[in-house]
């Protein structure tokens, strides 16, 4: 596992970041990986949505609501429920595709 999400991260002569079997906080590697995937998806949604808006697209309420809600589920010690991330990641994929289509539509105008 590898996680540098918070100030409790493992930091000594050997390690920079939690990279043993579990994090200092008890986070499991699968949870850290699912959080990374979700954050990566949020970056993709944000990139497309931001650029679509710059090109004149209207705000999308579903995207604007989802980004902060999903982001806050990854905050340290807030939610280590892997099932929650397994629900959010497909939702993020749907919204990423929506934001991508918004961007591409604006580019085609
Ligand atoms: S959230 Fe947990 S696993 Fe990640 S850096 Fe902090 S203590 Fe380590």
What does this structure look like?
The protein has 109 residues and is mainly α. The longest helix has 27 residues, at 82-108. The model has no long low-confidence stretch (mean pLDDT 94). 60% of the residues lie in helices and 0% in strands. It has helices at residues 29-54, 61-72, 82-108. It is built from 3 helices and no strands. It has a single domain, classed as Substrate Binding Domain Of Dnak, Chain:A, Domain 2, CATH 1.20.1270. It is elongated and about 55 Å long. Iron/sulfur cluster (SF4) binds next to loops.
How is this fold's topology laid out?
Layout lengths: L28 H26 L6 H12 L9 H27 L1
Summary tags:
single chain; 109 residues; mainly alpha; Substrate Binding Domain Of Dnak, Chain:A, Domain 2; binds iron/sulfur cluster
Could you write a compact summary of the structure shown?
60% of the residues lie in helices and 0% in strands. The protein is an all-alpha fold and 109 residues long. The protein has one domain: Substrate Binding Domain Of Dnak, Chain:A, Domain 2.
What do the pLDDT scores average to? 94
Find the structural class using helix and strand composition. mainly alpha
Q: Give the CATH class.
A: Mainly Alpha
List the secondary-structure elements in sequence, H or E: HHH
Tell me the total number of β-strands: 0
What is the CA–CA distance across the termini? 45 Å
- The Rg value, from CA coordinates, equals 17 Å
Q: CATH fold name, please?
A: Substrate Binding Domain Of Dnak, Chain:A, Domain 2
């Amino acid at each position: 596992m590898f996680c540098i999400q918070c100030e409790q991260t493992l930091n000594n002569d050997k390690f920079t970041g939690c990279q043993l079997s579990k994090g200092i906080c008890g986070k499991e590697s699968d949870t850290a990986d699912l959080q990374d995937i979700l954050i990566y998806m949020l970056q993709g949604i944000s990139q497309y949505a931001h650029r679509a808006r710059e090109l004149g697209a209207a705000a999308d309420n579903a995207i604007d609501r989802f980004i902060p809600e999903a982001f806050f589920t990854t905050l340290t010690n807030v939610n280590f429920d892997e099932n929650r991330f397994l629900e959010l990641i497909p939702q993020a994929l749907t919204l990423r595709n929506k934001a991508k289509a918004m961007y591409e539509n604006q580019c085609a105008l």
